[in-house]
From TrEMBL, chain A:
Pfam families: ATPase (PF06745). Residues 26-269, 270-502 form the KaiC domain. Gene3D superfamilies: P-loop containing nucleotide triphosphate hydrolases. This is non-specific serine/threonine protein kinase. One of its GO terms (biological process) is regulation of DNA-templated transcription. It is an enzyme of class 2 (transferase). PANTHER family: CIRCADIAN CLOCK OSCILLATOR PROTEIN KAIC 1, PTHR42926. Its EC number is 2.7.11.1. It comes from the Bacteria. Keywords: Hydrolase, Kinase, Phosphoprotein, Repeat, Transferase. NCBIfam families: circ_KaiC, PRK09302.1. PROSITE patterns: KAIC.
Automatic annotation (TrEMBL), chain B:
It comes from the Bacteria. Coiled coil: none annotated. It comes from Pontibacter virosus. Residues 5-86 form the KaiB domain. This is Circadian clock protein KaiB. InterPro entries: KaiB-like, KaiB_domain, Thioredoxin-like_sf. CDD domains: KaiB_like. The lineage of its organism: Bacteria, Pseudomonadati, Bacteroidota, Cytophagia, Cytophagales. GO terms for biological process: rhythmic process.
Length: 509, 91
């Protein structure tokens, strides 16, 4: 028998862990790194945790993943009790996540206790108890020496015996006692009717009160947003509040631990070039390494050009750059860049550049985040360019986008990756966008590209709005795009009102 | 011909009551034309597993089909008879 591994902390995304008080309650590492992170080590060991959620909130998957990872990572056998779904359907579901349920069942590492409704009609005449169920559960746990037990879902037993809810409540207390005697770390799932209301439909929380986790699946502005909240772990600390999660086809439930992130990054004094010497000059020597930089501008103002130069800047020191393009295809990008004298293909051949072009709508922001993390892990870039954040923001609700930005920038800073993001302004001259409102507080520098309408001509301008921790040029300069690329000229003398979109010539004395 | 399985748990009150009632019904309403298997889940848990038994007592009417189940101490005889589809006319 393998003894369960006890952990205090689980590193996730390599966010530094908070300083913690020693806990008196031991926890069982679930193996889902992101959950172990927000729960400060996993589920309370030898206890039962209630996992409540509305239908479709991934309760069953949460339980199944707990067992599957237990077998895969720690060789801890598990028992899965189903009151709802048929065993065969669950097997199919498990296989779709590449969990080898057939082998596990054969090797006796995973045992199903089938308590799902049968086709036969059941009527109740007189008093009964659930001793048969308890005995079967206990046998299964003994047989495979299970350290993990999942009961999914307890609400269905109320539906199966809908006229006898008093009896069921009384009997479920017995089941809870059996579980605690068996000393297995268990999950009991239960339904909720509303996302923000009673914890469970049948008041199961009245006798399973110690540890409660809530899964939510909220529809807001036509977008689904899944979150997980640890409501309480009696006698133990954990992250508070909702954290978004996603269901990844490879890794099942992955949580983005917003509440567990802290503002503690090493800030570098090292500078990296923007790829345009004149811009480097404006920002006093280049972007800081590991900083997050935003380029804001209307369509055609030169945002992608700045991105191309930022990428080209990797040549000097043989850095690596990842480009996430959400607006253009790679063919378009290559063509445009070569129009400015920048050869993306060569950089790619040298292994310095990786270009990923996808539509933002193909997956949720959480999935994009996880995919980017995967790519970063494999490619190990020094820089990341995203063109554009505005396109990416379409994939989610406002709140979800804000959370994504926070999590993503924290991640980049921790990995010391220099980021350049672009954002579209809706107006041709002047103005800002909602996307910027979300991101600007957490960026280290903001570069504005604005059109200036003057003497019947659209001229381009460039200005550095902010540069954290450094001096910068505060003038608004002329910006032209030529065959050789970007060209930054002198500042607009004697003109005011460029940023508001109403430039006016002022007389100089 | 009626074929029954009755799952009980040792000598629990509900189990004893269910056995008593069912035997009475068999004797008085079915006049010996029945087969009854009484299964104690303590002694034969495999059978409980196979049949997917949750509640005790559980009475399964195997024949005549369709198979149906009655759970509980069977203490309301008229309801048990109705549930098993046995007319009290047999009496």
């Amino acid at each position: 028998m393998v003894t369960p591994r006890l952990v205090r902390t689980a590193p996730y995304l390599h966010f530094p862990n908070r300083l913690r008080l020693p806990m008196n309650l031991q926890k069982l590492e679930t193996g889902n790194a992101s959950f172990d992170h927000i729960s400060h080590g996993g589920l309370p060991i030898g206890r039962t945790t209630l996992v409540a959620g509305s239908s479709g909130s991934a309760k069953t998957l949460f339980g199944a993943q707990f067992l599957a990872l237990g077998i895969q990572l720690f060789d801890q056998p598990g028992v899965f009790v189903t009151f709802e779904e048929q065993v065969d359907d669950i097997r199919k579901h498990l296989r779709s996540f590449h969990w080898d349920i057939d082998t596990w069942e054969k090797e006796g590492k995973w045992i199903f206790v089938d308590a799902a409704p049968k086709e036969e009609i059941i009527i109740a005449v007189g008093d009964f108890d659930l001793s048969a169920f308890r005995i079967r559960l206990e046998r299964a746990v003994m047989k495979c020496k299970a350290q993990r037990v999942v009961i999914d879902s307890i609400g269905s037993i109320f539906t199966q015996f809908h006229e006898e809810t008093h009896t069921i409540r009384r009997e479920l207390i017995q089941v809870a006692l059996t579980l605690s005697r068996l000393n297995a770390t268990s999950i009991i799932t239960a339904e909720r009717l509303e996302e923000y209301g009673n914890i469970t439909r049948f008041g199961v929380e009245e006798f399973l009160t110690d540890n409660v986790v809530i899964l939510r699946n909220v529809l807001h502005n036509e977008k689904r947003r899944r979150t997980i909240e640890i409501l309480k772990f009696r006698g133990s600390d954990h992250e508070k509040g909702e954290n978004p999660f996603t269901i990844n086809p490879e890794k099942a439930i992955v949580i983005i631990p917003l509440s567990a992130m802290i503002l503690k990054h090493t800030s570098s004094h090292e500078r990296v070039t923007s790829g345009i010497p004149a811009l480097d000059e404006m920002i006093n020597g280049g972007f800081y390494k590991g900083s997050i930089n935003l380029v804001s501008g209307a369509i055609g103002a030169g945002k992608t050009l700045l991105v191309a130069n930022f990428i080209n800047g990797i040549r000097e020191k043989k850095e690596r750059c990842l480009l996430m393009a959400f607006e253009e295809s790679s063919e378009q990008l290559y063509r445009n860049a070569s129009g400015w004298g920048i050869d993306f293909r060569q950089l790619e051949d040298e292994g310095l550049l990786k270009v990923i072009c996808i539509y933002p709508e193909i997956s949720s922001l959480e999935d994009h985040f996880i995919n980017i993390q995967e790519t970063v892990k494999n490619f190990k870039p020094d820089r990341i360019a995203i063109d554009s954040l505005s396109a990416l923001s379409r994939a989610s609700s406002d709140k979800g986008f804000r959370e994504f930005i926070i999590a993503f920038t924290a991640y980049l800073k921790h990995e010391e990756i220099t980021g350049l993001f672009t954002s579209n302004t809706p107006l041709l001259a002047g103005g800002t966008s909602d996307t910027e409102g979300n991101i600007s507080p957490i960026t280290d520098s903001i570069i504005l590209l604005r059109y200036v309408e003057m003497s019947g001509e659209m001229q381009r301008s460039i200005a550095v709005l902010k540069m954290r921790g450094s001096k910068h040029d505060s003038s608004i300069r002329k910006f032209t795009i030529t065959d050789e690329g970007a060209n930054i000229g002198k500042h607009f003398e004697g003109i005011s009102g460029i940023l508001t979109g109403n430039p006016m010539l002022i007389k100089l004395e | 011909m009626h074929v029954f399985q009755l799952f009980i748990n040792g000598h629990s009150l509900n189990s004893i009551e269910a056995v008593d009632t069912l035997l009475k019904i068999c004797r008085e309403n079915l006049k010996g034309n029945y087969q009854l298997e009484i299964i104690d889940i303590q002694k034969d848990p495999d059978k409980a597993e196979e049949a997917g038994i949750i509640a005790i007592p559980t009475l399964i009417r195997m024949e005549p089909t369709p198979v149906n189940r009655i759970i509980g101490a069977l203490n309301v005889r008229s309801r048990v008879l109705a549930g098993l589809g046995i007319s009290s006319m047999h009496k």
